[in-house]
Design goal:
elongated, about 0% strand, about 220 residues
């Protein structure tokens, strides 16, 4: 039980992720087969559906937008400020901060991660490792969305007796950008709303909120 308690946040959201992914597979299959029947096609099995481009593009278009959100939020909060938000640094403290503040190199503590202590390229990489990984996952998922979307788009064109288009041509289609932009705008709205609403609203016990009695102008103070 000690392991579960210490990692309960990750385990809970991991379970929610798997549960909703499975649910998406079943409801996506039902929707896909309903469309097949409406167009006088044959229904397919769940196993075939989860290996299809239709399922892949629906999953990846959401993944890429989520990781883009994290990528931009991590990058933006280095320099950008929202006075009164626990998600922001205090006014006047924007920037990468000094090596002393970041506990890098000679300023590292004995139990600091090794790559924070060694200096050089390894410390540079480690200093930006979260942003680099989020950016890589975003680009990987976006590339996957574009490839799966291209296949699904051409499958639909075949059903309407239309010729296939190239991958590069697909990247310029409204279908690709509609799938992309509709997810981006929702992520940006969610992040912006959180940054502003956390100035004035509270959730007792949450580290994403200021203490209930904190002033609205307190910035960078988490519960």
């Amino acid at each position: 039980m000690g392991f579960v308690r210490r990692n309960s946040l990750t385990l809970a959201f991991g379970a929610l992720f798997l549960g909703t992914l499975i649910a998406q597979a079943f409801v996506g299959l039902a929707d896909f087969n309903a469309d097949q029947v409406a167009h006088h096609g044959d229904p397919i099995t769940l196993w075939r559906y989860v290996r299809s481009s239709s399922f892949a593009v629906d999953v990846l278009e959401n993944w890429q937008s989520e990781y883009l959100q994290f990528f931009l939020f991590i990058l933006g909060t280095v320099w950008l400020i929202q006075r009164g938000s626990p998600e922001s640094k205090e006014p006047g403290k924007g920037g990468r901060e000094s090596e002393r503040e970041q506990k890098i190199g000679e300023h590292a503590e004995p139990d600091s991660p090794k790559w924070a202590r060694v200096g050089g390229l390894r410390t540079v990489i480690y200093s930006n490792s979260l942003l680099l990984l989020m950016g890589f996952i975003w680009l990987w998922a976006w590339a996957g969305q574009s490839i799966a979307g291209h296949v699904a788009y051409n499958d639909e064109r075949f059903e309407h007796q239309q010729s296939a288009i190239s991958y590069l041509a697909y990247l310029g289609t409204p279908d690709f950008w509609n799938r992309t932009v509709q997810n981006w705008q929702s992520e940006f709205l969610a992040v912006g709303s959180m940054a502003v609403l956390a100035v004035y609203l509270r959730q007792r016990g949450s580290p994403e909120s200021k203490p209930v009695g904190a002033q609205h102008t307190d910035t960078g103070v988490e519960g």
